[in-house]
Amino acid sequence: MVSFLSSGTGRVVRIVAGLILIALGWWMHTTAGTVVAVVGLVPLLAGIFDVCLFAPLFGLPLSGKRIRSH
Predict the structure, then answer these.
(1) DSSP of 2-63, one letter per residue?
(2) Which domain holds residue 48?
(3) Looking at the whole model, is its pTM more than 0.90?
(4) Is the pLDDT of residue 11 over 90?
(5) Contact in structure between 54 and 5 (CB atoms under 8 Å)
(6) Cα separations (Å) of 29 from 22, 26, 33?
């Protein structure tokens, strides 16, 4: 799972998922929608900055570039 998330395709998937969550939250116009939009920032920013937040759980570095070099 971590290898996929740190791959180029995984980064695109995280960015798209983040954008979808932000758009969904914006569309909802509620407090819950705001929460969804803020949660959507996590995968969006992780994909943009090439970090994998799950990697440390498996003893791997946070940086996607460093994960790919293993």
Answers:
(1) HHHHHSHHHHHHHHHHHHHHHHHHHHH-SHHHHHHHHHHHHHHHHHHTTB-TTGGGGT--SB
(2) 2-69
(3) no
(4) yes
(5) yes
(6) 11, 6, 6
